[in-house]
Design a protein that fits this description.
Elements: E1 8-10, H1 12-29, E2 36-39, H2 43-48, E3 49-51, E4 55-56, H3 59-65, E5 75-78, H4 83-94, E6 100-103, H5 106-112, E7 117-119
Parallel strand pairs: 1-6, 2-4, 2-5, 5-6
Antiparallel strand pairs: 3-7
Length: 131
Protein backbone atom coordinates (compact mmCIF):
# COMPACT_ATOMS: atom_id res chain seq x y z
CA UNK A 1 0.00 0.00 0.00
CA UNK A 2 1.35 3.44 -0.93
CA UNK A 3 1.95 5.79 1.98
CA UNK A 4 -0.58 8.59 2.35
CA UNK A 5 0.77 11.81 0.80
CA UNK A 6 1.78 14.49 3.27
CA UNK A 7 2.84 18.10 3.13
CA UNK A 8 6.62 18.28 2.95
CA UNK A 9 8.24 20.76 5.34
CA UNK A 10 11.12 22.73 3.86
CA UNK A 11 13.30 25.62 5.00
CA UNK A 12 13.29 29.01 3.32
CA UNK A 13 16.78 28.24 2.00
CA UNK A 14 15.56 25.00 0.42
CA UNK A 15 12.54 26.79 -1.10
CA UNK A 16 14.81 29.46 -2.58
CA UNK A 17 17.16 26.77 -3.91
CA UNK A 18 14.30 24.91 -5.61
CA UNK A 19 12.92 28.10 -7.14
CA UNK A 20 16.36 29.16 -8.39
CA UNK A 21 17.10 25.73 -9.84
CA UNK A 22 13.72 25.66 -11.56
CA UNK A 23 14.33 29.13 -13.00
CA UNK A 24 17.51 27.90 -14.65
CA UNK A 25 15.79 24.71 -15.82
CA UNK A 26 12.78 26.64 -17.14
CA UNK A 27 15.02 28.99 -19.08
CA UNK A 28 16.87 26.06 -20.60
CA UNK A 29 13.69 24.12 -21.38
CA UNK A 30 11.64 27.13 -22.46
CA UNK A 31 8.84 26.27 -20.04
CA UNK A 32 7.85 27.14 -16.50
CA UNK A 33 7.39 23.65 -15.10
CA UNK A 34 9.21 24.30 -11.84
CA UNK A 35 7.70 24.97 -8.43
CA UNK A 36 5.27 27.80 -7.81
CA UNK A 37 5.57 29.84 -4.61
CA UNK A 38 2.05 30.56 -3.28
CA UNK A 39 1.58 33.17 -0.53
CA UNK A 40 -1.61 32.50 1.46
CA UNK A 41 -1.50 35.70 3.54
CA UNK A 42 -4.06 38.46 3.07
CA UNK A 43 -3.52 41.25 0.51
CA UNK A 44 -2.55 43.84 3.15
CA UNK A 45 0.16 41.53 4.49
CA UNK A 46 1.36 40.78 0.95
CA UNK A 47 1.65 44.52 0.26
CA UNK A 48 3.92 45.03 3.29
CA UNK A 49 6.54 42.57 2.05
CA UNK A 50 6.62 39.35 0.06
CA UNK A 51 9.02 36.84 -1.39
CA UNK A 52 9.91 37.95 -4.89
CA UNK A 53 7.89 35.98 -7.43
CA UNK A 54 5.26 34.71 -5.00
CA UNK A 55 1.70 34.53 -6.25
CA UNK A 56 -1.09 35.54 -3.87
CA UNK A 57 -3.98 33.27 -2.93
CA UNK A 58 -5.23 34.39 0.49
CA UNK A 59 -6.35 31.68 2.88
CA UNK A 60 -9.68 33.55 3.24
CA UNK A 61 -10.57 32.58 -0.36
CA UNK A 62 -8.28 29.56 -0.74
CA UNK A 63 -11.01 26.92 -0.76
CA UNK A 64 -12.89 28.88 -3.43
CA UNK A 65 -9.86 29.37 -5.69
CA UNK A 66 -7.49 26.41 -5.12
CA UNK A 67 -8.60 24.72 -8.36
CA UNK A 68 -6.88 27.58 -10.24
CA UNK A 69 -3.51 26.32 -8.99
CA UNK A 70 -1.52 24.23 -11.47
CA UNK A 71 -1.85 20.58 -10.45
CA UNK A 72 1.15 19.68 -12.64
CA UNK A 73 3.69 21.83 -10.75
CA UNK A 74 5.15 21.47 -7.27
CA UNK A 75 3.56 24.02 -4.94
CA UNK A 76 5.57 25.77 -2.23
CA UNK A 77 3.20 27.41 0.24
CA UNK A 78 4.22 30.35 2.41
CA UNK A 79 2.48 32.60 4.94
CA UNK A 80 3.84 34.78 7.75
CA UNK A 81 5.22 31.98 9.93
CA UNK A 82 4.13 28.65 8.46
CA UNK A 83 0.80 27.86 10.18
CA UNK A 84 -1.67 29.06 7.55
CA UNK A 85 0.41 27.65 4.71
CA UNK A 86 0.48 24.25 6.43
CA UNK A 87 -3.33 24.33 6.68
CA UNK A 88 -3.56 25.23 2.98
CA UNK A 89 -1.09 22.48 2.08
CA UNK A 90 -3.02 19.87 4.05
CA UNK A 91 -6.18 20.94 2.22
CA UNK A 92 -4.45 20.60 -1.17
CA UNK A 93 -3.23 17.09 -0.33
CA UNK A 94 -6.80 16.16 0.63
CA UNK A 95 -7.93 17.47 -2.77
CA UNK A 96 -5.46 15.20 -4.57
CA UNK A 97 -2.60 17.60 -5.31
CA UNK A 98 0.67 15.72 -5.49
CA UNK A 99 3.73 17.75 -4.60
CA UNK A 100 3.01 20.27 -1.86
CA UNK A 101 5.57 21.78 0.51
CA UNK A 102 5.21 24.17 3.43
CA UNK A 103 7.91 26.82 3.77
CA UNK A 104 8.74 26.64 7.48
CA UNK A 105 9.07 30.00 9.20
CA UNK A 106 7.21 31.69 6.36
CA UNK A 107 7.80 35.15 4.98
CA UNK A 108 9.32 36.33 8.24
CA UNK A 109 12.05 33.69 8.02
CA UNK A 110 12.43 34.41 4.29
CA UNK A 111 13.15 38.07 4.97
CA UNK A 112 15.42 37.32 7.95
CA UNK A 113 17.45 34.96 5.76
CA UNK A 114 18.14 37.86 3.40
CA UNK A 115 16.31 36.25 0.50
CA UNK A 116 14.81 38.53 -2.20
CA UNK A 117 11.69 40.41 -1.14
CA UNK A 118 9.53 43.16 -2.56
CA UNK A 119 7.82 45.79 -0.45
CA UNK A 120 4.94 48.18 -0.95
CA UNK A 121 1.86 47.85 -3.09
CA UNK A 122 2.23 45.15 -5.74
CA UNK A 123 2.74 46.22 -9.33
CA UNK A 124 -0.14 45.52 -11.71
CA UNK A 125 -0.29 41.77 -12.28
CA UNK A 126 2.21 41.00 -9.51
CA UNK A 127 0.95 38.13 -7.43
CA UNK A 128 -1.39 36.86 -10.14
CA UNK A 129 -1.36 33.19 -11.03
CA UNK A 130 0.49 32.45 -14.27
CA UNK A 131 -1.93 32.20 -17.15
Amino acid sequence: MDPKPTVERISVDEAARRLEAAGADASAAGAAAGPLLVDVREPDEYAQFRATGAVLMPLSVFQLRYAQLPADRPLLLICASGSRSMAAGTFLIQQGFGTVANVEGGSIAWMRAGLPVRTGPPDEGEGDLPG
